[in-house]
Design brief:
It is found in: Cell envelope. It comes from Streptomyces viridosporus (strain ATCC 14672 / DSM 40746 / JCM 4963 / KCTC 9882 / NRRL B-12104 / FH 1290) (Streptomyces ghanaensis). This is NgcE binding protein. With about 500 residues, the chain is an alpha/beta fold. The chain folds into two domains: about 75-195 and about 360-415, Periplasmic binding protein-like II (D-Maltodextrin-Binding Protein, domain 2, 3-Layer(aba) Sandwich), CATH 3.40.190.10; about 195-360 and about 430-480, 3-Layer(aba) Sandwich (D-Maltodextrin-Binding Protein, domain 2), CATH 3.40.190.10. Helices cover about 40% and strands about 10% of the residues. It has 20 helices and ten strands. The chain has helices at about 5-10, 15-25, 85-100, 115-125, 140-145, 155, 175-180, 205-210, 215-230, 245-255, 260-265, 275-290, 305-310, 325, 375-385, 385-395, 415-425, 435-440, 440-455, 460-480; strands at about 75-80, 105-110, 130, 190-200, 235, 315-320, 340, 355-365, 400, 430. Strands 1, 2, 3, 4, 5, 6, 7, 8, 9 and 10 form a ten-stranded mixed β-sheet that branches. The chain starts with a helix and ends in a 10-residue tail after the last helix.
């Protein structure tokens, strides 16, 4: 079993701890590769098999119907029933039905996206619009690689819902269109929510410790030590879904080593996970486990249980996305002082400044290539990207949308205020790792569960985790059945 850098220098000696940790950055240990069995996930999702459903006839294109929706055709919309709930989508469906009174919308919400919809993709009769999110998210890279998705360019080039003088693409937040691209100009995904990822905490709890959010890892450990003395764990996380850990770990890696480290990881470059910045950040997180600063039992908690424990004051810090405010609304006390910060770095010699954060589109909406009424699915998205629908979403679920605006006249909740402040502080230092949408299985099952989850449960060391994860990445890079993507 390896030891942490802090232990190598003496945990009680603050004058040497940072030096030891920074020295770790300068060392790049040679790590071997690990071969693992391939895990099947959605491999059959695009294999065909059933008869394709008959397409709805196109409707007449008009100023009010720029996509030529058949006003009498049924439109089927399947939503992920997660942290944002379903009311915002139901409200947008009502607008669709008002605009097309002869059309019936078959709307449903489920947490079982992959198991419910994979067979329908195989049979050639998928829904017209899908919110492909959650633990059972279908692998976007596989769907794109197997030509299972419709290009959303017609939607993006259509007049916006509010202003016919503007295209839909011109109303979106920066980066949204690019996130939906994989290998060229076509846009396969429309990320509807705009998510701020980071370390969420209670300002009230931090104030009770007479502390500010820690900017260096030595400060983080000191805050956690103080919290522990008062009976509060420093951290908790979704132990059953440890791919939540990258929400703060990946931007920390980017802060320490620069954006190029994250790009190399996304690009599946050889030895990308062996970069000294990765090793240093893994070692830092492992310290939380080694020093007993992670809430006892966390590896067995799901996202709701970990969020509830955190809201109850059992842990100070929680890596998560901005949906946590809505998802935990029933358990967060009124005086909680919900706040979010960019991740703590190592020290002042990090490549990027404190405030470097991960923010990007969330809630990926897709229109299947074999949808019966794809134009209807795109029109539903066009409605959702109106100012009214955007405001409705933000008001009801406490999150920003892809629509670049929609907050005027809305009283922002504490979490939204904190997210906006974090984005302001970050400025241009916003990173956007792509593994979670390019390689879903690699990110969730392998890096998350088999790598980070095992490390943070204390079952493998950081060095072993890196070796294991690099093996997973190499396996994915060499798998000719997987379509590969690279930062342009």
């Amino acid at each position: 079993m390896g030891s942490t850098s802090a232990e190598n220098t003496g945990a009680g000696d603050k004058s040497t701890t940072g030096v030891g940790r920074r020295a770790l950055i300068k060392r790049s240990a040679a790590l071997g590769l690990l071969s693992v069995p391939t895990m099947s996930f959605l491999s059959a999702c695009a294999s065909g098999g059933g008869e394709d459903q008959e397409k709805a006839k196109a409707g007449k294109k008009t100023a009010k119907n720029p996509l030529g929706v058949n006003d009498g055709a049924q439109m089927e919309f399947v939503l992920f029933d997660g942290g944002f709930g379903k009311e915002y989508a139901e409200d947008a469906v009502k607008v669709y039905e008002k605009n097309f009174p002869k059309a019936k919308v078959d709307f449903s919400a489920t947490q079982k996206i992959q198991s419910t919809l994979q067979p329908r993709f195989n049979q050639g009769n998928p829904p017209d619009l899908i919110d492909n999110s959650g633990a059972e998210q279908m692998d976007m890279g596989v769907l794109v690689g197997k030509n299972q998705l419709a290009d959303l360019t017609p939607l993006l080039d259509a007049p916006s819902y509010d202003d016919p003088g503007k295209k839909v693409r011109d109303t979106l937040r920066p980066g949204i269109v690019e996130m939906g691209q994989f290998d060229g100009e076509k846009v396969w995904i429309l990320y509807y929510a705009y998510t701020v990822y980071g370390v969420w905490y209670s300002q009230k709890a931090l104030d009770s410790l007479d502390e500010q959010y820690p900017e260096t890892w030595d400060q983080m450990l000191a805050v956690c030590a103080k919290a522990k003395k008062k009976g509060m764990a420093g951290w908790t996380y979704a132990g059953k879904y440890p791919y939540y850990l990258p929400f703060s770990l990946y931007p920390m890696i980017g802060k320490v080593g620069g954006r190029e480290v994250l790009d190399a990881i996304d690009n599946l470059e050889p030895n990308a996970w062996k970069h000294p910045a990765v090793k240093a950040c893994f070692e830092a997180y492992y310290e939380l486990y080694k020093k007993g600063y992670v809430l006892k039992g966390t590896p067995g908690l799901d996202h709701i249980q970990s969020q509830t424990a955190w809201a109850q004051g059992k842990a100070l810090f929680l890596p998560n996305g901005s949906w946590v405010e809505n998802e935990s609304a029933k358990v967060i006390p009124a005086d909680f002082g919900l706040a979010v910060s960019a991740p703590t770095g190592l020290d002042s010699s990090d490549k990027l400044p404190f405030g470097t954060i991960w923010a990007s589109g969330g809630e990926p909406f897709i229109v299947p290539a074999k949808a019966k009424n794809g134009a209807g699915g795109m029109e539903q998205l066009r409605i959702m990207l109106s100012e009214a629908s955007s405001k409705n979403f933000t008001s009801k679920v406490k999150s920003l949308t892809a629509y670049n605006g929609g907050t005027d006249g809305i009283e922002l909740t504490p979490g939204l205020q904190a997210g906006v402040a974090a984005l302001d502080k970050a400025g241009d230092n916003v990173v956007n790792p792509r593994l979670q949408d390019w390689y879903v299985q690699l990110q969730k099952e392998k890096i998350g569960v088999s790598g980070l989850g095992e490390m943070m449960a204390g079952r493998i060391t950081p060095a072993e985790a890196i070796k294991k994860i690099q093996g997973f990445a190499d396996e994915t890079a060499k798998d000719s059945s997987i379509k590969h993507y690279k930062h342009q």
